[in-house]
Amino acid sequence: MLNFIWCGFFIVAFIVAGWRSLIEGEINVWTALINAVFADAKSAFHISLNLTGILCFWIGLLKIAENSGLAALLSKGLRPLFRKIMPEVPDNSPAMSSMIMNIAANILGLDNAATPMGLKAMEQLQELNPHKDKASNAQVLFMVINASSVTLLPITILMYRSELGASNPSAVFIPILCATSISTLAGFLSVAFVQRLNIFNRVVLSYLLGAAAFISGLAWSFSHLTPTQRLSLSADIGNFILFSVVFFFIVYGLIKKINTYESFIDGAKEGFSIAVKIIPYLVAMLVAIGVFRTSGALGYVVSGIEKFFAWSGLNTDFVAALPTAVMKPLSGSGARAMMIETMQAYGADSFPAFVSAVIQGSTETTFYVLAVYFGVVRISKVGAALPCALFADLCGIVAAIYFSYLFY
Prior knowledge:
Elements: H1 2-22, H2 29-68, H3 70-75, H4 79-85, H5 94-107, H6 111-128, H7 137-147, H8 155-163, H9 173-195, H10 202-223, H11 227-255, H12 260-294, H13 297-312, H14 322-327, H15 332-346, H16 351-362, H17 366-375, H18 385-407
């Protein structure tokens, strides 16, 4: 699957660039494509390089949690759910605690912590995988949950809206919460359908209903705060939780009388090796996405969608935000740039800017997650992971547009 997708980006880019140069006379498109190749390859390396320190730090902390027994303790809370949805993963597998901590970090919007934990979990799941070149059911489900993860605290988006002059930066908080919840639910249900998981048993239903109640309660609580309070509290809570995790892991290690420093160093070494493994996969995917965008193919896709909705007679006020929607599964930085561009072009308080921000927070960057998570364990056959993740993306984007009309 990845082979066809990767090659498809280059083939479509070449065809579109050929059309633009031969028919439209834009011969400079070839220069732009080569510049994009070099720029995106360099960008991919820099992303991997910047990720190295984060990986070393957080996987070092995970090693402390693992050696002290804290990881096993934390995993007990979600173990009954994971036992039902990932029956092939043994209860005593360290992958359980790594996955749980990854999902918890994603929910809290702590991306810097979530990625190292997720990569560690994927490596641990690979040890259980009998077919090393093909994603297991557990890996597929884990990847889709990551690619559509609920984010309770979209701190970065709120900060960008504030910096660009939005009068109520946190107005997108509840729409994002609703949209990302639907995205995650769609991703989980699609994988459950493909893998024929029994989601109607008492354990799974209780977790799903509990999560829905918690998210609804949090949304209700934040809706009663002033815009300034919502923005400030979201940032403060996220940062407090992040540093509290660091503090608690270290103190628990001391209480259990393990050598926390040596444990951290051992984990940091693992983090460095993971970062090195990521580089070629990230370069391959980001360069392919870059030429697809630079060729103009992405612009044609957005234009086609706009014409379709105009022909259908539907309201097209949201169309100006579609570049963010189209870019979101392909490139996180690209989608963020599109969101900022929309805010600058139409104003931070405009409807297109509002929709763009909600879309940005509704789902993850599918192809980035796919390339990094499966790349680190050298899996080329991803099975249902990509279609299920893209289905979750679609549901999240549609929900983002709907809730934007509802809340704006």
